[in-house]
């Protein structure tokens, strides 16, 4: 039997990168999947290349209304929701404090935190009433930057530390009806985009010269992760059968970075 047979999973930021890897694996394991992403073209590609049965919605995670629309459409299509997976994020291109432009700092902060932090809060708030009915689960994407410096600039690192706090607090608040956990990926071969205007050198993460080699050499397993390398852990944390007594916790998928 497939591990997610008859389950319904919502994924934000699911059209590319780690999110797409999670979507593909959930489908392989029998789940019905609804995806919200800001990029309409990538959503169309996801349906064309992976499955036309995926419910897609172009939307902004920083909008509570868009998250509520995703929940409503998923319930209309599939009848329920068993798990919410929050994954959408913006990067800051490793920009240190002294290089953040004085005139745009506030706007840059607002956009990163609205996506990386408020986006998760919106998603959980929108999905919680349905998850309570199914005694469902929440899984949020953290990052090594939620625990260690150097994986981004001050804004990205601060936003990911905030996600750790969300998981702990909501694991406490939403118990016993909803489990809340996280997966913390290390460096992954994705096109994670930086917030507009943070740096005139900004480019997709996996387009940075030498990024893959540097990331591989930085961890004991000596390779960079592919997006789908993390997907199994999202399933474990989402499944009430596989992790029924786990909440408020974060599992690391980082090639051994933490043990360095």
From TrEMBL:
PROSITE patterns per record: ADH_SHORT (PS00061)
Gene3D superfamilies assigned: NAD(P)-binding Rossmann-like Domain
KW Oxidoreductase (keyword) present: yes
Annotated keywords: Oxidoreductase
Assigned protein family: Belongs to the short-chain dehydrogenases/reductases (SDR) family.
Protein name, per record: SDR family NAD(P)-dependent oxidoreductase
Species annotation: Oceanobacter antarcticus
């Amino acid at each position: 039997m497939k591990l997610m047979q008859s389950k319904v999973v919502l994924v934000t930021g699911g059209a590319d990168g780690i999110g797409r890897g999670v979507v593909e694996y959930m489908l392989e394991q029998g789940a019905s999947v609804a995806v919200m992403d800001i990029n309409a073209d990538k959503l169309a590609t996801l349906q064309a290349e992976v499955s036309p049965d995926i419910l897609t919605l172009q939307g902004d995670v920083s909008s509570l209304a868009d998250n509520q629309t995703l929940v409503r459409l998923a319930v209309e299509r599939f009848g329920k929701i068993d798990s919410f997976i929050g994954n959408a994020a913006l990067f800051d291109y490793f920009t240190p404090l002294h290089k953040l432009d004085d005139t745009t700092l506030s706007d840059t902060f607002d956009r990163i935190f609205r996506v990386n932090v408020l986006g998760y809060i919106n998603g959980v708030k929108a999905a919680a009433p349905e998850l309570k009915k199914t005694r469902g689960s929440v899984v949020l994407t953290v990052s090594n930057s939620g625990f260690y410096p150097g994986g981004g600039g001050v804004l990205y690192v601060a936003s990911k530390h905030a996600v750790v706090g969300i998981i702990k607090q909501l694991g406490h608040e939403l118990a016993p009806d909803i489990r809340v956990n996280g997966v913390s990926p290390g460096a992954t071969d994705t096109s994670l985009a930086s917030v507009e205007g943070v740096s005139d050198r900004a480019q997709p993460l996996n387009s940075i010269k030498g990024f893959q080699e540097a990331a591989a050499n930085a961890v004991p397993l000596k390779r960079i992760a592919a997006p789908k390398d993390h997907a199994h852990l999202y399933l474990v944390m989402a499944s009430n059968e596989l992790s029924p007594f786990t909440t408020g916790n974060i599992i690391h998928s980082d090639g051994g970075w933490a043990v360095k």
